[in-house]
Fold these 2 entries.
Entry 1:
Amino acid sequence: MIVNKDGLKSIATYLLLIFIFVSIGFMLGKNSVNRQDSQTINKNIDFVAVYYMHSTFRCETCNTIETMTRNLLDRQYSSFLEDGSIQWQDIDFMKDIDLSKQFDVAASCVVVADIQNGEVIDFQRLNEVWTLMKDPEAFDQHISDAIDIYLSKEVRK
Amino acid sequence: MELSIFSALWLGIMTAISPCPLATNIASISFISRKAGNKAHVLTSGLLYTLGRTLVYILLGAGIAAGLLANAEISRFLQKHMNEILGPVMILLGMLLLNWLGKNISFSFKTDHIQEKAAKSGIFLALPIGALFALSFCPVSAGLFFGGLVPLAIKENSIIIFPLIYGVGTALPVILFAFLLAFATKSVSKIFTKLTQIEIWVRKITGGLFILVGIYYTLVHIYGLG
């Protein structure tokens, strides 16, 4: 069977339209069920939580911010990570709606929170990571400053 | 204040040159520069694209400053839903640019009329395309706009000027490359003296790019692939 140029265009057009309609249907179905419960926090201990809040779609820059934050923790706070005084979590803020509302997260960012008996007592949302990432020293300092405020309270206990 | 205005422009440029809006930027460059032989067309198209982007940022910034929109809520909504909608819309736009709607299929409504209208008013499509791409926040643009620009604009009490400057910044690299591409296309066509034919091919490439970028956005943002 020989299909001419117009025939091929028609086939491509129909296939693309079918793809669009199926995708829209899939999107509507997905959005009606896609919700994630808040991450469970250990209610018995007090600690400093360092969250990397990211969107479902991960971009290269976002991954770099996450890596820079994680490297800082491993380099400067490894003993606190080991004894649980600092806990690291990465959270998809598009799915964990409760946590993203609690921290008022508008875009991917780092959040440092003071957790006592499982309750968030205070937190700092560090949106500036986007502009500071070009200057690793300033980036590390900015995150360390936020961690140290809450960590000193933990150490004093 | 002057330093802050420069920061707003720089945030816009950083948004445009970051990797995450690369796909839509390539589509925009191709769309703006598609009539290489007509300087006025490329210029107007570029200005309308900038206007579309800028209007979105001004409206969002003003809405947030006035308390009509919650910064975090609107950001999450746009990041989630606009990127999902963008894929199918770009595929449709690509098909319109390729004249595939109406000619090859028949619907009960007059798609050929839509096609004709789109061809005639093609230049004005630049404005909604600019607005649509601006609304489709990726993680970088959301981080820099909602996390950087809006707080800066509120702090400086300049909720119109800062988003305007930011919008121009996001469009600048795109327009610059569009002009370079249009200039290069025209120069090449002079050598071969076949401008009309080259423009037809540029239009086809633009339509194809829109479809490919649309499929990419659909696969990534609706199906979660990649």
Entry 2:
Amino acid sequence: MKILSITKRIILEMRRDKRTLALLFIAPLFILTLMFFLFQSNSDTVAQLAVKNVPTSVTKVIDNKHVKIHKVTTSDSPKKVILDHDYDGYIKKDGNKLTVTYQNASQTQAGIIKKSVQMGLIKLQINQLVAGTKKAKSAIKKTQTQLHQIANQLPAAARRNMTAASDNQKQLSKPVKLSLSQKYLYGNSDSTFFSTMFPIFVGFVVFFFVFLISGISLLRERTTGTLSRLLASPIKRSEIIFGYLTGYGLFAIIQTMIVVLYCIYVLKVQILGSIVTVLFICFLLALVALSMGLFVSTFAASEFQMMQFIPILVIPQIFFSGIIPVSNMAGWLQVIAHFMPLYYGANALTDVIQKQAGLLQVATPIIVLGVILLFFVTLNILGMRRYRKV
Amino acid sequence: MEPLITVTNVDKNFNNHPVLSSINLESFPGKILGLIGPSGAGKTTLIKVIMGMEQPDTGTATILDKQMPNRIVLEDIGFMAQNDALYGSLTGRENLKFFASLFAIDRKLIENRINYVASIVNLIPDLNKKVSNYSGGMKRRLSLAISLISDPKILILDEPTVGIDPELRCQIWKELKKYRDEGKLIIITTHVMADAAQCDELEMIRDGHIISSGSPEELKAEYNADNLEDVFLKAGEQNNENPIDN
């Protein structure tokens, strides 16, 4: 089997190249861990809010654990106050009007203030409503006592009717207490942004590293002349390509296993679907990356030129991998998304990891990935005609 | 006797610049054929056409009655390229083993074969070193060993003696002649006249044309020269005086 000869050679070369191995197996874990902690802290953001002339009754309702309130008395403009102290927002009360000024350098902080103020105003209205009801209640009570006094002077039959009515009154005034219990379809209340990002990231890591390493490795064969030397032997062109696919596919599967197991056991990320399905999708995605990397290396004359394909072919795929929901994109962007292998890979991974989808439910993206793979493998085999026509 | 390799009316252009013009060639088993000529004459392109790695614009190259390019015929060809196409992170032995596995060689015989070809080029002591640590001459020798690994009927060597010391060159020629005597065909390209003198037949190539052919003695007689060096120079002068039309 000549395919196996190529595969064996690739494994041998990789084993000698410790740095590339580290890039393949350790770098993704490093990035993942970093992302894990970065996205965890997202919920602890605190917005600094300055208030002027705002009564305590209002600041009290705006205050929560995500907002820190600073009372100011200066007559400086809101802009100056915000810039001087690096506040995220400034609230001023003129008569019955609240004016909020946002720094708006970070949308997260502006969003927190916006939400807190809106929630505060609602709370305020409810409080006023409750106070109003209380007043009404005491007024009713007063009338009732007066009624009682009058009723005592009435004949017994009429009095019985009156008590029934006042019992009704008691039942009505009893407040209905609502209790809240939250249930989650996927994940649990501890789910962070990281759990959303995780499937996308696994797909991306597999795609990126395999694309780069396989592309550069075939490129090196071209530039050192070993590729044309290979084709001076009776090996088939397809055997070279399939040898590459198996060799690097093997490393891709080890890489995915390390990444997935690390996330499950060290970072404690929940994978709802079957791990085997996850590995299968990653493997397929790696093969697509591999065939694309090999193909693209045809157009690169050096390792540096190979790197130049990253901003063109790899980075745009991140945007369409589900970080931004594709269904919210403009129509023409959605069309572009459907040409991105990572769109299918990340979608399928998200479905399996977060929504417990089975192999059948992600059949469509898998089939599309298969077609893309077939397309590039054929192109690669044809591309080798440059070195030998048969 | 049937020729092993036949090249008929081959023309090849690169970007409208003729590299080979009406090349005709026949070579027979049991011979060492030397393609001699200055660099850029088209020797390597001719070899690539013969091996099917380049498609001629017109004309054909045939090996063992099969028109090239033909993948199966490559089974019978041992090739040594001008640049050392080796895997630097592998050892010499691993390189030999890898290339051996691309040919239909009996697995049990591979180890013996590796040791045999390595001994021809004096590489046995360095076989377990990484090729990236080899000197230029050692790489050249390993390339030669690789071309011999499948015991091919046809051996095609592109500038095989560059960077090899005289003592080893002598030994390699001895082996090549032994190989020829087993009835095999060896084609080498060279611009070193000492190597050309060792060949049985010579084809002198200049600017893509074969300007002269015959045994070293015949060429010397034709140009009335004492040694091949003079033949080479005289042929060059003549060619410049009466350039052959393209």
